[in-house]
Specification:
This is Zinc ribbon domain-containing protein. With 218 residues, the protein is mainly α. 43% of the residues lie in helices and 2% in strands. A two-stranded antiparallel ribbon has the order 1-2.
Amino acid sequence: MGIMDDVTGAMRRGTSAAERTARSTKLKADLREVNKRRQNLAAQLGASLYDATREDAAFREGREELYRGIAQCDDERDQINRALQALQDAAAAEEAARQSFTCAVCGAQVRGGDLFCSGCGTPAEQARALRPSCATADAGLRCATCGAPLKADYAFCMECGTPVQLAPEADGSAADEPDGAWADEPAIAAPQCPMCGAAAEEGQAFCMQCGASLARSE
């Protein structure tokens, strides 16, 4: 029995005003649900027809404004998605930069995305795991550059990488070069890893992608 049959049967039996109101409310709710389903199906049909006919000149005839409007919406949607992706990439890069740390082996700064320390070639995870805790720093001993607590056996400040023995004195002088063999190495003519081809920066001693030495052969 259909909806109309239900209504006709109820009218023949005689119904109260309250019953008619309840029945009317139910029918209106059903109508809204049917319209919602139809609208959703029509949208899916329209989208599939648009994709199938947007290059068909004969089908586009008389509907040019509709096709142009949909194409414009698609372009705007793509631009918004690209802008959102750029914001997400920037946030990810900022988070990676915040995760940089000082190599516990040589004192060089290691960025969040680096696989190896650029100063000594130590794998980043190992350099991070070896990082001493400043909580055990000797009382009163601090880095002259950044003021971070130091232990007596530290060779480098674990916060800024300044060599402890070369930390700036009260007169403000500062050492420009860290101790170690890499400080005297000549500048790399071609900033590229000879093993994996990854881009390198001037002054790097090791590739941060594969760990290969970037020192030029004499």
